[in-house]
Every structure is written in C-alpha cells, then in structure tokens.
Design brief:
Helices cover 43% and strands 12% of the residues. It has 253 residues and is α/β, with parallel strands linked by helices.
C-alpha cells in the first residue's frame, strides 16, 4: 500500500535527522537563544512550501516570542495557482537576483539578530540574496535544507554560492533530492513529498531546544498557550501578554 510506503519514508527521514543532526540542531538553537536572550530576533525566511515551517513555528500554540516571520506573498504557493500571482510567476521570481535585496530593505536588523532560512535545494537567487544581506548586517546565518542531496548543485546567483556554503550553521533536512518519494507504475514523476514534514520535524526539535536553553538561563519565555482547554481561566490573559510583548518588540523591525 503506497500510504504505508510514504509513512515509512517519512519515518526514515525523521530517524536520519535524529541520527545525524542533533549536534547541528544544538548549534543552531544556541545561536537563536543568544539572539532572543538579548531581546533581539530570529528572523525566518523561505519561499514556496519552505514558508510552511515559518508559519508552523510562530505564531501558534506552544510557540513563543522571539521568532519574526518574513513571508513575501508573491513567493509563496498559497495564492493563485494560475492567473495572477500563479505558479509560473513564483518560479520566475524566486530565481530573480536582486529581489531578496529589495525584501531586506523593508525591515530593520541588528547584528545581534540571526537569520534562519529554509530551502530544500539552497540554490535559488532570492534566498541567496537574503543570506548575503544578512551576513552584510553582521547576523549569524542558519540554513535548513537538504544539504547532502543538493551536493554538486550550482547556485543560481552571481556570487557562485549556495545557501549551504554561506551558512554559519546548517541542519540537513535529510529529504531526498527530488522531494517526492513514491513511484507509480504508469508515471515518470513520483508523488508524496517529504520535505515539509522534514522541515517541521527539525523546526520543533530546534525550537524546543531554544526554549530549553533559555529556560535554563532563567529567561522568561512569552509562550502562546492553548485557549481551548476547559478550566484554564488565565489562558486568554497569557495569550494577550505574549502578543503585547511581541507588539512591544516588533517596533524595532
């Protein structure tokens, strides 16, 4: 049954992350914890389905203030598929050098911030633009993506670099090069991608490690609670306090 095949592939990817990436996750989490402890930001960026881990981590139940999502609407798949802002335009835009430079002009950054970029292949120009601009501003750069599977690929950027070559810390998502993993009898292309599952797995392994580090340092986390648990009479207040903290801090961005 192909459903079980996909599930087995997904488990294999998660097992590979656990077996090979724990130390890199700890390194990434330490950089992020250092930024948040200083009252600064972990900026998060991705294109297409690599925006899903960004939306997953913050804001949501169990997330906490310190992560700043940067999602450029024309660079997601979650608009129209054809017509205006469709897939063809997206594929073109993510390869346009200079677009990421313009995106970065819309925000204020500090050298104590860090930049966390998600990219399956690490080769498209917009991501590399953002990475280079982050480095120019003195920020540490953390990249999550299929580094091993992307070995030998050339970046689509005049710098000649890939995201993985620019990063201070890389966490390999352990997803396969083509992302999809299930073959069909009568079709050339596979179905059943696993990169989003891999990203989300690595995200929460990292974010809870950031929380662990900050908790051990005595730092007060502003956590988004569930406000749907019967009997929890202070959940709305705690959520309001977390949003107030975010609003107070976002003024510098």
């Amino acid at each position: 049954m192909l459903a079980r095949q996909w599930l087995n592939h997904a488990r294999d990817v998660m097992d590979q992350i656990e077996a090979t990436q724990i130390e890199n996750i700890k390194k990434a989490a330490t950089v992020m914890a250092n930024s948040i402890e200083k009252g600064r930001w972990v900026h998060t960026f991705g294109c297409g389905h690599a925006t899903l881990p960004i939306e997953e981590m913050y804001p949501r139940i169990g997330g906490f203030v310190g992560f700043h999502p940067i999602v450029e609407l024309p660079l997601t798949f979650f608009t129209n598929i054809v017509g205006g802002m469709g897939v063809n335009q997206f594929v073109f835009l993510e390869r346009v050098e200079g677009y990421g430079v313009e995106i970065m002009k819309g925000y204020d950054f500090h050298e104590d911030d860090c930049m966390w970029i998600f990219s399956h292949t690490g080769i498209n120009a917009v991501n590399i633009d953002v990475a280079l601009e982050a480095r120019k501003r003195g920020m540490k750069l953390i990249v999550f993506g299929a580094e091993a599977a992307a070995a030998g690929k050339t970046g689509r950027h005049s710098s000649g670099k890939t995201l993985f070559q620019l990063a201070d810390v890389v966490v390999d998502s352990c997803a396969p090069a083509g992302d999809a993993c299930i073959s069909l009898k009568n079709h050339q292309d596979k179905v059943g991608p696993v990169s989003t599952m891999a990203f989300v797995t690595a995200v929460w392994m990292t974010v809870v490690t950031v929380a662990e580090l900050l908790d051990e340092r005595g730092y007060k986390l502003h956590i988004h609670p569930s406000h749907n648990v019967p009997g929890d009479t202070t959940a709305k207040e705690r959520l309001s306090n977390a949003l107030k903290e975010y609003k107070k801090r976002i003024g510098g961005v």
